[in-house]
Amino acid sequence: MKSEIIAKDVYLNFPIYDAQSLSIRNKIRDIGSKVVSRSKEDISGARVIEGLKNINLNLNHGDKLAILGPNGSGKTTLLKLIAGIYFPTSGEVSSRGELSCMLDIGFGFELDATGYENIILSNIIRGHTKNEIDKLLPDIAEFSGLGEFLDMPLRTYSSGMQARLAFSSAIASTPGILLIDEFFSTGDIEFSEKSKTKVLEMMDNSSILVFASHDMDLLQNICNKAILMKNGEIILSGAPKEVINFYKDTYHLR
Fold first, then answer.
1. Closest Cα to residue 148, out of 117, 194, 115, 109?
2. Which is nearest to 54 in space by CA: 238, 251, 231?
């Protein structure tokens, strides 16, 4: 089955809660006024922030899409929309193919559970069956390099060890559709290099890649399509080199 991602005329709004109901209203008055000034109202009269506006995408087998844009432009929001974490306020989003997102790789972890138990829990959340996890478990354990610590509760781990476990669990299998939001720190330099090599391998083997990053050299080397986002909108789409050059010129990044 060929993978695909389609987004058609998608808008995504986030509601703003009534400031009258907040007990700390006076403390956030200035912040709140700035937020409200950038918002609109939906048909019910509730104030909303427009997270995404008029998003149209059509990605097919073999496409590797780079998402560029400054912080706050909507890159992560778009990835979460494609992943099904967010649902559009209007418009349609659909995907076909096994999907894996590397957005919050530690999601689903429990501090009192052991490393092995957290591997199982996190991969159940990702949709793997118990039989699939049993087959993946030895490779995950070996890649993590955590050894006997996998029998200990997660709360005893250092932050670097937790990152090792989270990353090793997230890259256990190569999906048809891979969504990645930046690269992340995974502890010591040796493990970080091993992690980067593994992610690049996954990118090569996935049928569709959607990759948000500020590493423009990497995006240009890996991707065959690119979009530039600003204020929740796609303001330019095209070949990676073209979009990256426009982005650099617009934001004086050269």
1. 115
2. 231
Listed in sequence order, the residues at least 6 apart from 53 whose beta carbon sits closer than 8 Å to its beta carbon are 11, 231, 232, 233
Cα(216)–Cα(190) distance, rounded to whole angstroms? Answer: 23
| pTM: predicted TM-score of the whole model, two decimal places | 0.80
156 secondary structure, DSSP code: G
Average pLDDT along the chain: 86
Is the Cβ–Cβ distance between 241 and 66 less than 8 Å? no
Please say if the pLDDT value at position 92 is more than 70: yes
**Architecture of the 102-206 domain:** 3-Layer(aba) Sandwich (3.40)
For tokens 């204020």, the residue is 231
- Rounded Cα distance, 172 and 11, in Å: 33
- The per-residue pLDDT for range 33-87, each reduced to its tens digit, is 444 444 566 555 568 889 999 999 999 999 999 999 999 999 999 999 999 989 9
Residue with tokens 């990353």: 167
Sequence-ordered list of residues with C-beta below 8 angstroms from that of 191, at least 6 positions apart, any chain: 145, 164
Domain extents in the chain:
4-38+51-97+213-250, 102-206
Q: Which CATH number fits domain 4-38+51-97+213-250: 1.10.8.60, 3.40.190.10, 1.10.1740.10, 3.40.50.300?
A: 3.40.50.300
Residue with tokens 């209203």: 25
* Pairing mode, strands 64-68 and 225-230: parallel
Tokens for 124, please give them. 């159940």
Q: Residue 111: how many CB atoms within 10 A of its CB?
A: 11
Q: Write down the residue that tokens 């104030």 correspond to.
A: 47
